[in-house]
Amino acid sequence: MPIPSSATAISACPPSRNATSIRAAPASIAFSTNSLTAAAGRWLGAGGGAPTRRPRIADETLQRFLIWCGVDLGLPVQFHVGYGDSDVDLHRCNPLLLTPLLRAIQPTGVPVMLLHNYPYQREAGYLAQVFPHVYVDAGLATHNLGARAPALLAEALELAPYGKFLYSSDAFGLPELYYLAAVLFRTALSGFLTAGLQEDHFSERTVVRLTRMLCADNAKRTYQLANQM
Question: How many other CB atoms are there within 10 angstroms of residue 41's CB atom?
Fold first, then answer.
């Protein structure tokens, strides 16, 4: 099935969010029809995911193929990292383990989005600093941490460039989560920028510019949504 022309990104969730499960394959790798057919057969034979939930493509061959399809199309590639469902092996979810793959994608210039990241927000910020094509958001970690969301934001922004940190709610299920995520992010960002203003790290004009960048402009630029919003 072709990727819809309206798609704005490719979203990858490595098996158990295990960053080591996605090998760094060069962009020129040849995925044979036989290997893809075999991988699809294994996945379908296993039920295509748990029968009571939305199917999840957990086969490494299929995921790697879809990731490079997104890269070939020039679409941002999202990686769900760290905190998540009960099938997560959190000790194997450090985004630093994606470093070889990030190096392989870098020559293409395609953005790589590291989502959620908790408790590895500092590592994700480091990767956003050292790789020109890597971006970070806090996603569902914000509304799960609640009152500790300001600490999460501050730690991620210790190294992450301000132009490479994005807001997302990643809310699902209860509609109230969308509201909660937005309120907690605004509160955390307001505290961060107010402290910087009081300590003369930022001017008032810079605070306004950073607010627009972190809340909307970075996402619009990276996902090429400027003409749609």
Answer: 11
150 and 191 Cβ atoms separated by less than 8 Å: yes
Q: Look at the chain and report how many structural domains it folds into.
A: 1
What CATH number is attached to the domain comprising 215? 3.20.20.140
pLDDT tens digit sequence for 106-156: 999 999 999 999 999 999 999 999 999 999 998 888 888 999 999 999 999
Q: What is the domain extent for residue 170?
A: 14-228
- Strand order of the β-sheet with 10-12 is 10-12, 77-81, 112-116, 134-137, 165-166
Give which of 62, 54, 130, 141 is closest to 99, Cα–Cα: 130
What's the predicted TM-score (pTM) here?
0.86
CB within 8 Å of 179: residues ≥ 6 apart: none
Other C-beta atoms lying within 10 Å of the C-beta of residue 137? 29
Pairing of strands 10-12, 134-137: unpaired
